[in-house]
Amino acid sequence: MSAPAGEGPPFFVVGSARSGTTLLRLMLNAHPAISVPPESRFVVELWRGSEDVDAETTLGALSRHRLFAAWDLPIEAVRAELGRSGTVRYADVMTAAYRAFAHLRGKPRWGDKTPRYVEHLPLLARLWPDARFVHLVRDGRDVALSYADVPFGPTRVAESAALWASRVSTGVVHGRALGPGRYLEMRYEELVADPAAGARALCDFLAVDFDARMLDYAQRARDAVLPRAARYNPHVTEPPRTDTRSWQADMPPEHVEVFEAIAGDVLSMLGYPRRYPQPGRRARTRARLARLGVPLDVLRSTRAGPGDPSGARG
Fold first, then answer.
1. Which of 8, 92, 173, 286 has the lowest CB atom count within 10 Å?
2. Within 10 A of 265 (CB to CB), how many other CB atoms are there?
3. Which residues contact 2 (CB under 8 A, 6 or more apart)?
4. Is residue 97 within 8 Å of residue 104, measured between CB atoms?
5. What whole-number distance in Å separates Cα of residue 249 and Cα of residue 255?
6. 3-class DSSP state for residue 248?
7. In sequence order, which residues have a C-beta less than 8 Å from that of residue 112 and are 6 or more positions away?
8. Residue 164 and residue 312: Cα distance in Å, rounded?
9. Which H or E run includes 87?
10. Between the CA of residue 233 and those of 22, 124, 132, 216, 307, what are the distances in Å?
11. pLDDT number for residue 296
């Protein structure tokens, strides 16, 4: 399936959960030429290892996928976009879904925002040889604090540290191997501090003209927020804030030390300062026991009050 003139290469926004990827999705959706649907996951979950598939079988599986239902997209629109039956490329079926979603919104360019695809960059890069990847990185200690406010994801410090370190380092290794033309690392902290600079850098990377409407995403893209995302990200339709909850002030020191005992090397690789460059014996022991399954160090914040005021998304 060849790309229509002016469509541009597809792109994928990835990263650890609770790192701000939903913010980035809304910013992109506020661009008049770009459409990013709700999380997919089905690209990986429906993959069976063959690049050639039966069109109707794959369309049927797609129509039954729980996350495709959230797109509110008739499977007939995907079938019409695909334009043929019989044996087709798997990537062409998936592309047809993204294009149908975008075209129903009058937009030519499509992308994806599914954080956990950070673990599958080689597959996505193979399926779409021209695809670009945006890896949004946030300090893992702040990610852990954000997990403390939601009923999903890790519930303990060691579990959060291990998951964050694994996903982020996997994305960095596979992403950097693609080269700077296909892979961009962005910092959540820098994005919220200067959204305009972040949006311009993003547009440069995606080879699309910057549009100032991206900075008004809180109003222009609020309809793209699913109820679940709004419930667990209560500030998702507000402009980004820099007066956020931070691990320096709000994470118990003993939790910081355990987190760094597990994920300190990844923090350092990304340039985040460590409070405990050499964690003590007690922290190392607690980290080791926790990773063996001992229920230690439940995630909590020293600041009272529900919700993550950073509005960290995705």
1. 173
2. 12
3. none
4. no
5. 12
6. helix
7. 10, 11, 12, 13, 36, 37, 40, 43, 98
8. 15
9. strand 87-89
10. 9, 28, 27, 18, 7
11. 77
Dihedral over alpha carbons 201, 206, 210, 212 (to 10 degrees): -80
Q: Answer positive or negative: Cα dihedral of 248, 254, 255, 258.
A: positive
Rg (CA), the chain: 20
Report the distance separating Cα 189 and Cα 244, nearest Å. 10
Amino acid at 237: T
The Cα 123–Cα 271 span in angstroms is 28
Contact 128, 11 (CB under 8 A): no
DSSP track, 90-147 = HHHHHHHHHHHHHHTTT-SEEEEE-GGGGG-HHHHHHHSTT-EEEEEE--HHHHHHHH
Residue of 176 and 220 predicted with greater confidence? 176
- Over range 94-122, report the average pLDDT: 97
DSSP 61: H
Distance CA(115)–CA(163), nearest Å, equals: 13
| The residue count for the chain | 314
The pairing of beta strand 109-113 with beta strand 87-89: unpaired
Distance, CA of 156 to CA of 110 (rounded, Å): 36
Higher pLDDT, 205 or 312: 205
